[in-house]
Amino acid sequence: MSDQPSEASRPPENPKEAGAPVPPEPPSSSEAAGPPAAGRPDTTPARSAGEPATDAPPSVVRDPAPARASGTPRQRAQGAPKAAVPGNPWQHGAGAPAAPGDGATARLRPPPPSLIRPAVLGSVLATALLSAIFLGDGLGVNLLIVAVPAALAAFFAARAAGRRLRPWTAAWAVGGLALLAVPALRDAGWPTFLAVVSAFALGSLALHGSRTWPGVLIGSLGLFDSVVPGIIWGVRGVRARAEGSRARWGAALRTTLVALVLLVVFGTLFAGADAAFAELLGGLVPDASVGEGPWRIFLFALGLAGALAAAHAAAAPVRWDGITVRPGKPRGRAEWALPLIVLDLLFAAFVILQLVVLLGGYDKVRDVTGLSHAEYARQGFWQLLWATLLTLLVIALALRWAPRGGTGDRTLVRAVLGPLCVLTLVVVASALRRMDLYVDEYGLTRLRISVAAMELWLGVVLILILAAGVFGARFLPRAIAVSAAAGVLAFGLLSPDGLIAEQNVQRFEDSRSTAIDIDYVKDLSADAVPALDRLPEPERSCALRVIQNDVLRADTPWYATSWGEARAKEILEKRPVKGDARDCYGAGREGTRDGYEPDDDGYDPY
User: Fold this and answer.
1) From the CB of residue 177, how many other CB atoms can be counted at a distance below 10 Å?
2) Chain segment 49-66, per-residue pLDDT in tens
3) SS3 state of residue 579
4) How far apart are CA 353 and CA 368, in angstroms?
5) Measured between alpha carbons, how far is 287 from 528 in angstroms, rounded to an integer?
6) How do residues 231-284 score in pLDDT, each as one tens digit?
């Protein structure tokens, strides 16, 4: 969606006094900024900096003026309200002080949108109904079903406001919908949570169109700021349209009721006539009881408020890019560069020693350090992760206080920070290598795969910073946001629980582990069933017993069932577990999941 309106507004001109013999003159600045004359449409989309914020339509806040100016020029000048020159409605008052009583975001808001359109209202109501029907039984493909009409409501509202679809907006919207496919594919709750939160952030960015650091950071949560204005906007629009079209609303209501009665009557008759049709109908239609009424009403209200907030943000987005952060005071070259050069030398010395690990492996590590596999990996991975995070903070602060005198200063900044980014990439590679060696020795867990994914993304951020130093930092905030969303999407689609089970089963099959840790793998989600199904008995039944109880006993409808859960259910129905839980008391325990023996007093954080 465009950050600009479809047409530029122009302030009306005040005519000269009636009957004056002098020829017309160009209006003064105070007259050009005055209120429009009565009987003429007010095409100015932006309020003046001193005008109070209001959610009423523009026609309500106009200052009624006579059709033709009267009185002396002095009287007209004294009676004319003081107003700023109208500006861009999508950058209303950016940087200007807000009037007393305005909200914290008043100076960043454009004027209130026009009355809600029928297409927007229909999409909002569809979102609310689908939320009440489908969201009460869990998460799955139902999130996509609910998100589509909400996205349509935002699209119709943006088009009515004159905004156009832009490439970045399309990228945010498509990425958000793609992230909602993770709950439809994976049963694990932790990748689903990350995907849903990221989808909300990308949807908010699509509605606000932010491009700066404050805009991207705050705009990802900016949809919350449109909840209350969106509800007020929807209520006013429905009230205004209902007053002039009661007959049409009555006809629509009667048509809907007749259609529902016909569906219920004939659907009941056909279900009683054929058992297969009854089973199909029962699987498609949500099963809602009277006791779930309050919960369904809450979901209806939640969907209604969310869709109205999205539509209002699309029609009148808060311009979070108007929030500016002043750059820090530039330092002298020597004062700024000397500490960073010392840090570069420290990183270089550390990187030279890390080449032993990256190229030599654990045999070389034992010869040099005398540490075991687990001790060496635990000793350094978390420190290297924190070193990477702190390096990013150092780079951000260094850019804030960097000298900005000219070409020479820019060359100095690149010459100092560029090597620091490259050396930090080697630190990232060293941390990932340590984790790889540790996982190869003791297996994969949720925490290990999560922190490894985090470290890998930090490496991507460093590469983007290097690219910004060469090609410019204009797209850096949005590029980092895209990389984070892409990482969450890839993390969910790769099925971390499935990878954990696959890696541990593969180690067991390759005789690299004398037993598999049943106590750990039995708590994985249904995504791990295809890999755990390859285990021999009794390890297979011991690993799948808890998952089978959860999957086969769950009466989850189709729209709240993930593909991973459906696949696990199919496998376990064909090959159910054998024996009972007593057979699992001594199976699959080797006491080395965390890299230490049972009688060791050491503690492993992951």
Assistant:
1) 18
2) 333 344 444 333 333 343
3) coil
4) 11
5) 29
6) 999 998 888 877 666 656 666 667 767 776 777 777 677 767 766 666 666 655
Report CA Rg, the chain. Answer: 32
28-67 burial string, b = 16+ CB within 10 Å, else e? eeebbbbbbbeeeeeebbbbbbebebebebbeebeeebee
Residue 402 tokens, joined: 């960097």
User: What whole-number percentage of the chain has pLDDT above 90?
Assistant: 34
How far, in Å, CA of 562 to CA of 56, rounded?
45
Amino acid at 547: I
Residue 495 CB partners (closer than 8 Å, separation 6+): 185, 186, 188, 191, 527, 564
Residue 97 in 3-state DSSP? Answer: coil
CA distance 374 to 435: 10
Identify which of 249, 306, 310, 250 has the alpha carbon closest to the alpha carbon of residue 118: 249
* 507 DSSP assignment: H
Give the Cα separation of 367 and 71 in Å (integer).
99
CA distances 591 to 437, 501, 587, 597, Å, are 19, 18, 12, 6
Phi first, then psi, for residue 510 (nearest 5°) are -85, 5
Residue 422 to residue 537: CA distance in whole angstroms: 50
Residue 52 carries which DSSP code? P
CB 488 within 8 A of CB 195: yes
Which of 569, 539, 573 minimizes the C-alpha distance to 556? 569
Q: Closest Cα to residue 469, out of 411, 424, 425, 427?
A: 411
Q: Which amino acid is present at 341?
A: I
Q: How far apart are CA 322 and CA 263, in angstroms?
A: 52
Task: Out of 51-60, 184-193, 286-295, 332-341, pick the least confident.
Answer: 51-60
Q: φ, ψ for residue 111 (rounded to 5)? A: -60, 160
Q: Please state, in angstroms and rounded to a whole number, the distance separating the CA atoms of residues 220 and 481.
A: 9
pTM of the model: 0.73
Report yes or no: 605 and 450 within 8 Å, Cβ to Cβ: no
